[in-house]
Design a protein that fits this description.
Oligomer: single chain
Largest sheet: 10 strands, antiparallel, barrel
Distance between the termini: 45 Å
CATH topology: Lipocalin
CATH architecture: Beta Barrel
CATH class: Mainly Beta
Number of helices: 5
Strand content: over 45%
Strand order of the largest sheet: 1-2-3-4-5-6-7-8-9-11
Number of domains: 1
Structural class: alpha+beta
């Protein structure tokens, strides 16, 4: 009974975090637009390494600071990632798959007879962080705080104009009840420095434990590791507009997988992280506009 309650509570975390971020945005919100790169690195310990990069566009909705009392405040960020380069590859594959061959049919027509092919799609990702910070040092010109942070992330794939393919794969996922969840929890260190009445510099770093779980009727995989972020920005508040500000900054996120193991049809798989290094990272610059009450 206790384990069932815990599972129910965990399954609602993502809804709770988004609801909290939405409610606090009524007191102030920040919209950011960014561009950067996503990198995946993989290799065998001290023997062989490879990496792949793709460009990313990022849209962020952020609540930088919601005061709970004089020294305690809540913060949160919702990042939505998309990759123009991946979409370009998708469009190229789409063109090839639908090109008519000398035999009078396209590869998509032939393959689609047996298995619908969703060759036109968009890949996106969502990353949510929310936390509470307590200011340990506070003055008119600067502040330094420490706190806790939690959140989740998940990939999203949107297929376009391929209803047969969507229904085909949706039926498979529904039959196997596939679930993918990624949660994290850790600590945060945040500081700010007021250069004058209009310009403020701020930085934030987090260090968290991150756990991912992929489960369906056929297989189950668990992975965990270290999740680290660093962000710095400069904020400009026009003297004539005290509630509206502009900012620009840089964000870096990194997830190093420490262990990964699971089962396929009830058979245990080895912990590949014992010999394989896996690391995912993103970095991007951004500009934004926000308001506060």
């Amino acid at each position: 009974m206790y384990s069932l309650c815990v599972k129910c509570w965990v399954s609602k975390i993502d809804h709770l975090l988004i609801a909290t971020l939405f409610c606090t945005s009524l007191h102030g919100v920040e919209l950011r637009i960014g561009k950067g790169e996503f990198q995946t690195s993989m290799g065998i310990h001290d023997f062989w390494q490879m990496s792949a990069k793709s460009d990313i566009d990022v849209i962020s909705i952020s609540q930088p600071r919601y005061n709970l009392n004089e020294t305690l405040y809540l913060f949160g960020t919702l990042d939505i990632y998309s990759s123009p380069s991946m979409e370009a590859v998708s469009q190229y594959i789409d063109t090839v798959m639908n090109a008519t061959t000398p035999f009078g049919f396209s590869p998509n027509t032939l393959l689609g007879t047996f298995v619908p092919v969703p060759n036109s799609y968009e890949i996106e990702g969502v990353d949510v962080d929310i936390g509470i910070t307590k200011e340990m040092i506070k003055s008119r010109d600067y502040s330094l705080g420490v706190g806790v942070v939690t959140g989740f992330s998940t990939p999203i794939m949107k297929m376009e104009n391929y209803f047969e393919a969507f229904n085909f794969y949706a039926d498979i996922l529904d039959y196997t009840q596939t679930k993918l969840k990624t949660y994290k929890a850790g600590i945060v260190l945040e500081g700010s420095l007021n250069l004058n009445e209009s310009i403020t510099l701020s930085s934030k770093a987090t260090y968290a434990y991150q756990q991912a779980n992929l489960t369906n009727s056929i297989m189950q995989f668990d992975s965990d590791g270290k999740h680290r972020t660093f962000e710095t920005n400069v904020q400009y508040t026009p003297k004539s507009l005290k509630n509206i500000y502009l900012n620009a900054g840089y964000s870096y996120k990194d997830w190093q997988v420490d262990s990964m193991q699971g089962t396929i049809m009830g058979i245990s798989t080895p912990n590949v992280s014992a010999v394989v290094d896996i690391e995912l990272s993103s970095r991007y610059g951004y500009v934004g506009i926000g308001y506060k009450f």
